[in-house]
Backbone:
């Protein structure tokens, strides 16, 4: 048995940063309050003490400055990992992703690349203030050239962040903060790198496929566990891990086997990743489908203030009802 | 706390070469004749290249084009002050800097022909490609300067932008970042008085662009941007300050966009001929030539010969670019430069695209020939005219 340590997602991300900074001296961390404060969620805790203020940098309060500096550092040859304190503030620096990070390879016919990572806590469920709950992954997902990643637990958070830092593409790494401290997992201590663009099949099953990612993985697993025990369900559960470019082949193979599919995500429904998954299933698995594909998602509204957030987020009731729909069709 | 005053310092100004070709000898940089002739040659090459490119655009040989006419001293002055190791973060109106840093005419035309391939030579250089969204290069320049500082290199990042860019948040965030972190950067503003149709005075209530340096706690200088020597000296000093760890400098080069914003623009709509005329005698090439002739570094015959050599060079560069465009290049190469490795779905899309292209030549030349100015504004007119 490989040696493991029981960690939360915050601790696992922190471990990944320590490991990657140790492995490659070109890796540096920048952002607001990432130094002595260790980041508002403590993901960068202890880094400045070990690697100093040259490599762990409290920047001016300027999201475009931070993201632009990351683009410049990457162009220069460094491996910047910048933190935007909440994903709702990425928009202040959005320009640098859209106009430069994702285009530099194409603009230079492959001569230059932009190996930066943008980390930001995302999504809702922790009773936070406005602008602290967004699931805007498909805004970046619709910007070819960016890799968009969302881990679901401590182990894949560490493995995916390590892969993101080593990637030569710009990676938007979105961390569902409701999972930051709500799950502990055994994280192997060897160099456990998860490939980007690859989904994980969390449970094999024959009756229907559930495709999800991020914070919803935890919820889906709980609902499925109950369904398996109480109703005899046999679901196949897929955690996409990478939002774009996503592993549609794993989804297509699974649905060709089960014929039924449910997609769960927190982001708004229209134009969400679920819509693209439906389209690809139509493209590649049309004749295998036994029932209309169901989606349980956030609504096509901005995220409400927190007293009403439970009405916005997918929940056990909505997921269970959707499973009944695809099974009874 | 009683009422008081905080003294905030001042900005320098610098002017060496006047409109008649006479210099203030006490301020002159030490440059040998070879370097002076190189500077003049690059300025003239830039001017003629722009003029030829304007003709090519009208003939439909290249697409929408942004000339640099009138700004040659600002660009070549800064470009020649920079060392190869200094990083160059351009906007889209820095032809003189590119030429000083060795860009080929072929690659210049390829860019304006809508072909990325000319940029593939940037690998391993300290040059980054053109940035079109105004001022956005000002933020990543901070990251480049930061990298230089981390590696303790004796170099700086020089970032170029216009007067309009100083109204953008990106400019502020970038230059403030460099100030706060004391990074080796030079913020070089080509204040050419016009952001398309919007004059400099509508951009800011500040009397100068250079004075913004005071707010960032960095050094600021305003120079005569149509005087090669002032620009060169100010750039050398700014670079030296950066190399010595003294932080960034904001250089404001006062110049004038003597031509159109791009070939899709018509300045007659928004500015007077009288104003344009006022800048005739301040023309940077005319001033440099007067100086060189006065000092007998350049004769009229030399100049004629140089004109002929440059004309041939430009033509040859264009022919090379056109030959490259017509050399059966892969029309779908861009699929390969989105990610380090092409993802399966994108590969699938590329195959579909390839299938539909079979037997067709789809590499596009620029446009149909157009007459006169107009560009974007003229599209509707042309359609109307055809009715």
Residues:
């Amino acid at each position: 048995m490989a040696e493991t340590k029981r960690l939360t997602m915050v601790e696992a991300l922190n471990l990944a940063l320590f490991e990657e900074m140790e492995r490659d001296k070109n890796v540096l961390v920048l952002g607001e309050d990432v130094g002595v404060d260790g980041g508002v969620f403590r993901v960068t805790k202890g880094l400045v003490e070990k690697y100093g203020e040259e490599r762990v940098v409290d920047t001016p309060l300027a999201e475009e400055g931070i993201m632009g500096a990351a683009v410049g550092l990457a162009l220069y040859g460094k491996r910047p990992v910048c933190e935007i304190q909440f994903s709702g503030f990425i928009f202040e620096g959005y320009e640098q992703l859209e106009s430069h990070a994702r285009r530099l390879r194409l603009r230079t016919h492959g001569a230059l690349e932009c190996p930066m990572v943008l980390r930001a806590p995302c999504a809702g469920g922790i009773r936070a203030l406005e602008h602290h709950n967004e699931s805007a992954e498909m805004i970046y997902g619709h910007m070819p050239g960016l890799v968009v990643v969302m881990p679901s637990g401590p182990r894949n958070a560490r493995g995916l962040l390590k892969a993101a830092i080593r990637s030569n593409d710009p990676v938007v790494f979105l961390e569902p903060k409701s999972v930051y401290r709500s799950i502990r997992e055994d994280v192997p201590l060897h160099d456990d790198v998860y490939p980007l663009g690859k989904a994980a099949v969390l449970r094999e099953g024959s009756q229907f496929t559930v495709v999800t990612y991020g914070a919803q993985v935890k919820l889906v697993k709980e609902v499925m566990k109950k369904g398996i025990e109480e109703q005899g369900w046999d679901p196949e559960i897929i955690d996409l891990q990478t939002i774009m470019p996503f592993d549609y082949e794993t989804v297509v193979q699974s649905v060709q086997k089960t014929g039924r599919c449910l997609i769960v995500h927190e982001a708004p429904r229209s134009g969400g990743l679920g819509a693209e998954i439906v389209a690809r299933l139509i493209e590649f698995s049309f004749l295998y489908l036994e029932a209309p594909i169901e989606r349980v998602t956030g609504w096509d509204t901005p995220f409400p203030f927190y007293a009403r957030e439970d009405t916005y987020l997918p929940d056990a009731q909505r997921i269970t009802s959707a499973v009944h729909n695809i099974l009874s069709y | 706390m009683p009422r008081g005053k905080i003294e905030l310092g001042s900005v320098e100004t610098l002017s060496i070469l006047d409109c008649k070709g006479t210099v203030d000898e006490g301020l002159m940089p030490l440059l040998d004749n070879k370097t002076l002739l190189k500077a003049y040659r690059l300025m003239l090459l830039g001017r003629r290249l722009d003029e030829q490119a304007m003709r090519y655009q009208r003939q439909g040989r290249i697409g929408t084009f942004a000339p640099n006419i009138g700004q040659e001293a600002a660009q070549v002055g800064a470009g020649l002050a920079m060392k190869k190791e200094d990083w160059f973060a351009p906007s889209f109106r820095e032809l003189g800097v590119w030429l000083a840093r060795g860009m080929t005419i072929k690659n210049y035309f390829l860019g304006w022909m809508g072909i990325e391939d000319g940029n593939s030579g940037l690998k391993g250089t300290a040059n980054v490609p053109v940035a079109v969204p105004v001022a956005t290069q000002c933020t990543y320049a901070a990251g480049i300067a930061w990298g230089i500082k981390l590696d303790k290199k004796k170099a700086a990042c020089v970032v170029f932008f216009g007067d309009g860019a100083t109204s953008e948040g990106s400019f502020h965030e970038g230059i403030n970042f460099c100030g706060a972190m004391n990074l080796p950067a030079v913020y070089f503003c080509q204040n050419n008085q016009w952001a398309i149709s919007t004059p400099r005075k509508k951009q800011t209530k500040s009397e100068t662009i250079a004075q913004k340096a005071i707010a960032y706690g960095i050094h600021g200088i305003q120079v005569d941007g149509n005087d090669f020597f002032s620009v060169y000296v100010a750039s050398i000093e700014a670079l030296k300050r950066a190399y010595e760890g003294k932080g960034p400098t904001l250089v404001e080069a006062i110049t004038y966009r003597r031509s159109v914003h791009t070939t899709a623009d018509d300045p007659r709509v928004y500015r007077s001929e009288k104003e344009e005329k006022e800048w005739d005698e301040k023309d940077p090439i005319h001033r440099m030539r007067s100086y060189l002739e006065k000092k007998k570094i350049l004769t009229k015959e030399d100049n004629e010969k140089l004109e002929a050599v440059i004309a041939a060079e430009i033509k040859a560069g264009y022919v090379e670019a056109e030959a490259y465009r017509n050399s059966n290049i892969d029309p779908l190469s861009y699929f390969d430069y989105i990610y380090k490795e092409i993802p399966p779905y994108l590969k699938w899309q590329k195959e579909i695209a390839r299938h539909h292209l079979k037997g067709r030549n789809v590499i596009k030349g620029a446009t149909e020939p157009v007459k006169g100015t107009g560009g974007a504004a003229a599209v509707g007119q042309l359609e109307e005219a055809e009715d």
